[in-house]
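FORM 7B: Structural annotation worksheet

SECTION A. Query
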Amino acid sequence: MTAGRYLGLVKFEHTLFAMPFAMMSLLVATNGRPGLDTLLWVVVAMVGARSAAMAFNRLVDRHHDARNPRTAERHIPAGEVSLRGAAVFTLIAAAILVFAASRLNTLCLALSPVALLVVLGYSYTKRFTRWAHLALGLGLAVAPVGAWLAATGSFAAFPLWLAGAVMFWVGGFDVIYSCQDVDFDRREGLHSLPVAVGVAGALRAARALHGLSVVCLAAAFVGSPVLGAASLVGVAVMALLLIQEHRLVCGGDLSRIDKAFFVINSWIGAAVLCCVLIDLYLV
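SECTION B. Predicted structure
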């Protein structure tokens, strides 16, 4: 089905990586009582932003993807989605973000082009910096800040700490994932931490980024007057899951990278969100 091809193009299921953190931000901002309209439009805005970012990335990277054996079967190089189709999809998804922002408040609408610049701009960063991983993380870190602004119309420390946690978490696991393309990226002249410092050095950097992520998450939760012990348990759970993630790739063994990347990282957001829900609704 055509719809299935486009959902596959943007890996729609990976929206689950950042969605729990956007929900945490929204719930804390409203003390667990978000309006249904706000909840709906935050979800729509997030899906639009991520879909636009992913489709745009596939467009920009299509030539590299076609030459990389690992990615040659992606939808555009494989001919399953046309360039025009991907471009139209990107524009529609971006328009959905802007429309959803307009339904939230004037600040969200005014900042929606900035959000698009961040999430679309990531696709070019591997051309010139080894820190493209953090650019990807920043793109997902927009989610908790946007959710907070949607509920309150103003900035605060909590969503910024949460954004830091997301940025370093995503940046760290993207460093791990990019280790499998180190030889290809080097041949293509693309930048990444594995290219710059080797796989062993990149894995050490990923551990440091994940340590910063845990610190940021702890700072967010400790500083919140509506969260308590259960949320701090969530911080510990995240730390333990990240330790397990690094054990799976210990010594540069990338044979279990799919489990480290897709399985464990999908657990992290869900586990932390569950702990936040306990604090907000059960304690």
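SECTION C. Observations
The chain has one domain: 2-282. The mean pLDDT is 93.

SECTION D. Sign-off
Analyst initials: ____
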